[in-house]
Write a structure and sequence with these properties.
The complex is a heterodimer of chains A (163) and B (755). Chain A is α+β, with helices and mostly antiparallel strands and 163 residues long. Chain A has 2 domains: 75 residues, Ubiquitin-like (UB roll); 74 residues, Orthogonal Bundle (DNA polymerase, domain 1). Chain A has 5 helices and 7 strands; from the N terminus they run E-E-H-E-E-E-E-E-H-H-H-H. In chain A, helix 2 packs across helix 5. The longest helix of chain A has 14 residues. Chain B is 28% helix and 24% strand. Chain B is built from 18 helices and 28 strands. At the A-B interface, helix 2, helix 3, helix 4 and helix 5 of A face helix 1 and helix 16 of B. The complex binds FE2/S2 (inorganic) cluster (2 copies). One FE2/S2 (inorganic) cluster binds next to loops of chain A.
């Protein structure tokens, strides 16, 4: 099946078997290995990508559903600066600075989910952030420093970082 | 937050950005399944599916196309058919005719061009097994009707005796005796990255890369299995998505399988477990039963403790002897007790072997002794803090094995720090209190504990871990150690230590890839030893190097404040320069394996944890409303990394206490999926209040001692004590799921007086 979609701000055309998992197509065909498989059944969120700005578990999505949509993976969350440097998303920068990543396997999913969440709900408080993040498991951090990071990222986006 | 200036050495005690942070947040860090391996096939494992029996035959379906499949059996093993560890009793693959000792025993391996093809091939292998009676519970193992190990099913027995000749009489004379039996279940590490290995052969050399904690453990196992000399096996750690002990011993099994398949297929093999296989087959925390009798005098002074510890070791010896050792060495707790008898046994059952998981036996015995202290506090009407302060070990006191504590004893300090924090207002509750429907009961529990840092007894001396630091021609310094970063921050902490010792900026420090062809054996990444023991080696090597470089600078009239430039000059004009340091135990650390007396650990960490819970009386749902954890870490080299260790460990412990059950039926895990084998989400987790206490340890880098495991030890007892306080029923098991509480409440009607 021929699919057209946008992937990380670029137009893509792909001829694939329609029922393959989006996660596999990203990792195997497109060599975008930032999306991880932790469970394969929609529990852990390590495979999170954004479709039209909303987080989804790519292990549960047949690739056919991409047709005509806009996909962002972790590889497309940071932007390129004018002279080629990597400009991290506020969420990514805060996760680095606040120790919100340890082993890092959950981090791509958490960064994407949190970035989308803060776009939708820029004033989410800690308790709300915990709910918004509840689909992304992290076994390393106890979530405390992740939530600290997201609170900071939210305030950076609003124009004042404590970092 | 505190950004180190780029030209200055990294500071100690701040929170510079993690050196592996950017690759991890941008998705460019490469974990084993992300590695490109042109031409690689995928492996799969055929398992026994009976708890015990004789492997009679293996046949391939005649109507299946086997042309693009390789099949490997025990016959293909060139070396010894064992997974080398403490005792070489566990086979890599059960041979036809051999004994099957648990349901996840590997019988054969297949590889094919895709994962799906490999799985399809598995389905076309037929196994015939003569099933035999099995032992799958602690009670059955004790009865020994069926002997699956020796004639008593005891894998290991260890004892501690301190003035215990007439301990039964002494207990009989005590004003108060508290007695209880405490059961704790298996716990899954549930690292988010399942286990996996990539193996390939280059000529006669086998190279494996994977998700693992201990490259040299895997190396040793492969040398034996493949019958190769040391230098024809190369083991490299890929970026690893969590370990917590779960990637200490099992990677040796997977690496062996992947290596055998790669040899047979003549191409690289990826053997990556899916979640179901990972949960079912790999190790978990040992289920335990601890019987504990504690005698106190009328004032609440501890007099005697008589403790019996049982661990379910599973089907093979694996690490159970050392887990048992740590379990009994912590069983009497951080208290002064004149008379102590501890008997520990690890029993064999026909379940997949239980193994390393953060805490390594100590959480099980800590749960028991702190539940006992909570009960004693109630029975005697003595405040929880006061009872601990009356009995805790201080500098100059000795432990149950007679180890006199002198250095870095943070016992009072953690309790004082915790009680001071209680005066402050709680942070706004995080958890879904709103989901509780009244009526709600509330309770509070305290736990106090210690945890030995580093290997037990003479372990560190025997191991003699080494680290090399080398000057590179560029003027950079390369740290070569086999310690692995499994998320705990080793890369960053070693960079800080080296940067400080050499007085050079972070950019000058390079960490060598943890590959056995490049780094010496620094010992495994386990036992809260990486920062304290190996970090100290990094520091010593750097200091020795700095001294040599300063001499070189003086001889050559170079600016000795810029050692990077000096190092480049030294290498260019006088050849390579490197320093290797080997571990030397501090003087006076004496331990006897025969009598189990002496200095069990170089030093102890100390912790106090307080938990407030709310329990919904109708649904029995428990919400942790407050969790404060004060931990003496010696010195925090990196504040946020240390906090992150404590918080991650604390939540794993809360999970073990409240939610994380791994039920077995006849040796089979009943919930091998993330959907059913749950771990806490961000919405389940409370706001964690972490308090660092710093009582420097003279022999650790900058005073640091272990922190990785201690946060796992105390919180479960604090939770159980808090629920007991709320409901008035004795909570002597974990996890305390609503259905468990329901049974407890039916069995023992609440006594208001307990609360
Ligand atoms: S892999 Fe998709 S949710 Fe876990
Ligand atoms: S950082 Fe390891 S799972 Fe989140």
């Amino acid at each position: 099946m021929k699919l057209r979609f946008r992937l990380n701000d670029e137009d893509k055309e792909l001829d694939v078997e329609p029922f393959r998992r989006l996660l596999d197509v990203l990792r195997e065909d497109l060599h975008l290995t930032g999306s991880k498989e932790g469970c394969g059944e929609g529990e852990c969120g390590a495979c999170t990508v954004l479709i039209d700005g909303a987080p989804v578990n790519s292990c549960l999505v047949p690739v056919a559903q991409l047709d005509g949509h806009d996909i962002r993976t972790i590889e497309g969350l940071a932007r390129q600066g004018t002279d080629g440097e990597v400009l991290l998303d506020e969420v990514q920068q805060a996760l680095v600075s606040f120790g919100g990543t340890q082993c890092g396997i959950c981090t791509p999913g958490i960064a994407l989910c949190a970035s989308a969440a803060l776009t939708r709900e820029p004033n989410a408080d800690r308790a709300r952030l915990r709910e918004l993040l509840a689909g992304n498991l992290c076994r390393c951090t106890g979530y405390q420093l992740i939530i600290d990071a997201l609170v900071d990222a939210a305030s950076t986006r609003r124009g004042n970082s404590k970092r | 937050m505190s950004k180190d200036h780029e030209d200055a050495p990294m500071t100690i005690g701040g929170s510079p950005d993690r050196v592996d942070g950017v690759p991890k947040v941008t998705g460019t860090a490469l974990y084993v399944d992300d590695l490109e391996a042109p031409g690689a096939w995928h492996g799969a494992t055929l398992r026994s599916d009976v708890p015990r029996g004789r492997f009679v035959s293996l046949t391939r379906a005649a109507d299946f196309d086997w042309s693009d499949v390789v099949v490997v059996t025990a016959d293909d093993i060139a070396g010894q058919n064992v997974v080398a560890l403490i005792e070489d009793d566990q086979p890599s693959l059960v041979p036809v005719g051999g004994m099957i000792c648990h349901r996840e025993e590997a019988l054969a391996l297949v590889a094919a061009p895709t994962r799906a093809a490999a799985r399809a091939a598995l389905a076309h292998l037929t196994v015939v097994v003569d099933a035999l009676p099995a032992v799958t519970t602690l009670d059955a193992a004790l009865r020994a009707d069926v002997a699956v190990h020796n004639d008593d099913n005891v894998l290991k027995r260890l004892e501690i005796h301190r003035n215990d000749d007439d301990i039964d009489e002494i207990l009989a004379r005590c004003a108060h005796v508290i007695e209880g039996t405490y059961e704790t279940g298996a716990q899954e590490q549930m690292y988010i990255e399942p286990q996996g290995i990539l193996a390939e052969w280059r000529g006669e050399t086998c190279r494996v890369t994977g998700s693992l904690q201990c490259p040299y453990y895997v190396h040793k196992a492969l040398v034996m299995l493949l019958g190769l000399p040391d230098d024809q096996v190369v083991v490299t750690q890929a970026v690893t998505g969590g370990g917590f002990g779960g990637k200490e011993e099992y990677p040796s099994m997977i690496a062996g399988h992947a290596a055998l398949l790669a040899r047979a297929a003549g191409r690289p093999i990826k053997l990556i477990y899916d979640r179901a296989e990972d949960i079912a087959a790999t190790t978990k925390r040992h289920p335990a039963r601890v019987h504990h009798r504690l005698g106190l005098d009328a004032d609440g002074q501890l007099v005697a403790a008589d403790i019996d510890v049982l661990l379910d070791g599973g089907a093979y010896v694996t690490l159970s002897p050392v887990v048992l050792s740590r379990a009994i060495l912590h069983a009497a707790g951080p208290y002064r007790i004149p008379h102590v008898r501890i008997v520990g046994r690890a029993l064999a059952t026909n379940t997949p072997p239980h193994g390393a998981f953060r805490g390594f036996g100590a959480p099980q015995t800590t749960f028991a002794y702190e539940r006992q202290m909570q009960k004693a506090s109630r029975a005697l009407g003595i405040d929880a803090f006061e009872l601990r302060r009356k009995n805790l070990l201080r500098s100059g006191d000795s432990t149950a094995t007679g180890q006199v504590l002198t250095d870095s004893v943070g016992s009072d300090a953690v309790l004082d720090t915790l009680s001071a924090a209680l005066e402050r207002a709680a942070p706004p509750a995080a958890a879904r209190l709103g989901s509780l429907h009244s009526p709600v009961r509330r309770g509070r529990g305290l736990a106090f504990c210690f945890h030995g840092s580093g290997f037990t007894g003479s372990g560190e001396q025997r191991l003699a871990g080494r680290v090399t630091v080398a000057c590179l021609p560029s003027g950079d310094f390369e740290i070569r150690s086999s310690s692995t970063d499994i998320g705990q921050g080793m890369l960053t902490i070693f960079s800080q230590i080296a940067s400080q010792a050499l007085g050079v900026p972070a950019a000058r420090i390079v960490l060598s890839e943890p590959s056995t062809e490049r780094v010496p054996d620094s010992g495994p990444t386990v036992a809260s030893r990486t920062c304290m023991i190996v970090g100290r080696l990094v520091e010593r090597a750097c200091l020795a190097l700095a001294e040599q470089l300063r001499a070189h600078a003086a001889a050559n009239r170079l600016d000795a404040t810029d050692l990077a430039t000096v190092a480049a000059h030294r290498v260019a004009h006088a050849g390579p320069l490197a320093e290797t340091c080997e571990h030397e135990s501090p003087p006076g650390v004496e331990w006897s394996d025969e009598t189990y007396t002496g200095a069990a650990y170089p030093v102890f960490g100390w912790a106090a944890c307080l938990v407030d819970v709310a329990v919904d009386e109708d649904t029995r749902e428990v919400v942790v409303e407050r969790c404060i954890h004060a931990v003496d870490v010696g010195r925090a080299i990196h504040r946020r990394i240390v906090e992150g260790q404590i918080e991650g460990g604390t939540l794993q412990a809360l999970g073990w206490a409240l939610w994380e059950a791994v039920p077995y039926d006849d040796g089979r895990v009943l919930n091998p999926s993330m959907t059913d084998c749950i771990i806490p989400t961000s919405a389940d987790a409370p706001e964690l209040e972490t308090l660092l206490v710093e009582m420097p340890f003279a022999h650790g880098p900058h005073g640091a001692k272990g922190v990785g495991e201690i946060p796992m030890d105390g919180p479960a007892a604090a939770v159980a004590g808090a629920i007991e306080d709320a409901l008035g029923v004795a909570c002597d098991v974990v996890p305390l799921l609503p259905e468990v509480l329901d049974v407890l409440l039916v069995d023992q009607p609440p006594q208001e007086t307990l609360a």
